Amino acid sequence: xxxxxxxxxxxxxxxxxxxxxxxxxxxxxxxxxxxxxxxxxxxxxxxxxxxxxxxxxxxxxxxxxxxxxxxxxxxxxxxxxxxxxxxxxxxxxxxxxxxxxxxxxxxxxxxxxxxxxxxxxxxxxxxxxxxxxxxxxxxxxxxxxxxxxxxxxxxxxxxxxxxxxxxxxxxxxxxxxxxxxxxxxxxxxxxxxxxxxxxxxxxxxxxxxxxxxxxxxxxxxxxxxxxxxxxxxxxxxxxxxxxxxxxxxxxxxxxxxxxxxxxxxxxxxxxxxxxxxxxxxxxxxxxxxxxxxxxxxxxxxxxxxxxxxxxxxxxxxxxxxxxxxxxxxxxxxxxxxxxxxxxxxxxxxxxxxxxxxxxxxxxxxxxxxxxxxxxxxxxxxxxxxxxxxxxx
Length: 392
Hints:
This protein is an alpha+beta fold. It is built from 13 helices and twelve strands.
């Protein structure tokens, strides 16, 4: 049998593993045996033909590597595969030549109540139980403080081919699906959904790479990438994961997404603002972006127009519309003070917490419609949902 030497090595390791009965003994045995088993497998067929490979980890990045056969084989023994089955699994991985990865991003400011699948490849994970993820999340070496309870965004992607045989230099090319641009867009999308589902700030300033733990030709465990950032939230707010899913789905279906994204981003900036002036500026801009979306020319009636549109969008009777009108108009007046004088008047009675809640409610009401309303029809008491969608 051509693979008899590999079978013998795996049978010896399997016999040793069967004699272990305590976790402590297993960990000590594994730490030592993975090296010797890996070195031995690297010298026999069929593993020796793949002792040196170039492993693609996605988006054109890769690294030269020597086979991690010992760890991979022991994991298969733990799965109760017999040595011949392990060789079959090896042949299948070589033939498939495709690898899976998770791009893992701490969602600062968010603690979901349960893990939710937002998409077929995207999950919002409650506080991690995996030791590797927990080490990444709470390591003192991280540039940010991740409070206990911080959730994780996981985006799964595939790399094909996963490896190039026989060399430690890149050869050819590899396809990543979805690619970095698509994953970055999804990350922004999740941030906006989380902002709509909570009252706190939300940021995703960095990501780490987590290869498929069952994969053999994978690499890059723990590789990190960051994005431009300013202040990051240090407080974690409990969030209903179902509400995040609801907002995520509405944002995906919404017509006019660019304008809505800019508006929600301003809401997020307002929640990170360190002064009432900056907060009023960002909240005012967030409201103006969505409530003046029909591109009306700038004039002195913007405050009145924003107030009336919010009133008809959110109010169900004259009294509630009057209250919403006054609150939104007060926010815009505070925003104007901040723009023109750099300060808020001591006589200003604007409640910025209430304004935040009002702006968020307006965003959610517009998203539920699936597109921006026909404002002229809405403020005349018409049904804006019957109108044709307007251009972005």
